[in-house]
């Protein structure tokens, strides 16, 4: 059975915690897209783990974790993550595996990502600077280096030289920056290439074999629907497909094998980096929400932009991902806000939009039509049963369910593993 977990907003919906919660019933957790731009946070007994590439299922000693072909892998960052896990007593050997056809983020990808984004000037995307877009661009430009290429001295050297010739031309002639030396990178990568060998497998065959043996697989998406390269707020998006469909191409499993799609929905909205955000708040309330929700990027530490819940985008996320159910996260952060608003439609140039418009001119300049609801004042972090929630919290949840037309199956009310209400 395959269950896919997707973000329904702009990422940072709390997928790390939900994946950790669901992983206990799974045999395998597999990441299907993105790279070290992601930051999935899991807190266990007060100890914080931030995952960038390794699936958070690794915290359970018996689970197998896969990093799929749809991801882009920065081996330097990967080994830093593995070292941190091992320092904390979590062994990854014999249960962490990497698809041989995933692409590698090289040093020049990171350098060029940062230079290119600065070069965009006013059109800066605010990328994480982790070389994500530049690695995917090379994948599609057919000059990428794949994990399997690391295994062969000649192939790796040849591919590195070809790619670097082009990158150095760009760096020197266009950006007027320092160039890189292929031999130095080749030598620097010797140790990494040796260390990574034991993790490399033919993931497609492995995962399909596991499926035929009846194993339970959790496909872990990173980022969120509105950072999707096709359906997100283009060009202010990441360079991969976080939507549920990405799990098929990013893990080599057929659409006919997907059994369930779970959407993770934050009880309000946040976004890191540039790009349109119609329900964004400004001022004191945003500061309060950022503080109580600890809304700072898990990868870059940047303050997240905060806003009201937008039912229009989450309804679209439900359609494009085919959501079967929803997990609401961070409901506790809304305690103490007197009046809550929910965006229900947009207005632009005299026209009402009930659906998410692909035209970014409309999405960037629209006025939001809100519904207002009474909030609740009490803390809800220790509540374990839905019936014990304050009446206004239940009304808020039920209104969201009505607007999105998808069943809410659980609510998270705190960052610890146990702080979850099943409905
Ligand atoms: P990139 O993925 O580094 O190319 O960045 C593109 C956009 O996606 C930027 O606005 C980033 O802030 C955003 N982004 C990338 N990864 C994440 C994430 O894991 N959570 C939230 N935003 C992200």
Which blocks of ≥5 consecutive residues have pLDDT under 50?
A: none
CATH architecture tag of the largest domain: 3-Layer(aba) Sandwich
Number of strands: 20
CATH topology of the largest domain: Adenylosuccinate Synthetase, Chain A, domain 1
CATH class of the largest domain: Alpha Beta
Strand count, sense and closure of the main sheet? 10 strands, mixed
Task: Note the quaternary state here.
Answer: single chain
Rg, rounded, reads 22 Å
Key features of this structure:
single chain; 423 residues; Adenylosuccinate Synthetase, Chain A, domain 1; Adenylosuccinate Synthetase, subunit A, domain 2; 3 domains; four-stranded mixed β-sheet; 12 helices; binds inosinic acid
Describe this structure in words.
It is a single chain. The protein is an alpha/beta fold and 423 residues long. It folds into 3 domains: 2-99 and 201-262, Adenylosuccinate Synthetase, subunit A, domain 1 (Adenylosuccinate Synthetase, Chain A, domain 1), CATH 3.40.440; 103-194, Orthogonal Bundle (Adenylosuccinate Synthetase, subunit A, domain 2), CATH 1.10.300.10; 265-422, Adenylosuccinate Synthetase, subunit A, domain 3 (Adenylosuccinate Synthetase, Chain A, domain 3), CATH 3.90.170. It is built from 12 helices and 20 strands. α3 packs across α4 (132-140). The chain is globular. It starts with a strand and ends with a strand. Residues 10-12, 37-39, 125-128, 130, 132-133, 222-223, 227, 236, 238-239, 272-273 line the site of inosinic acid.
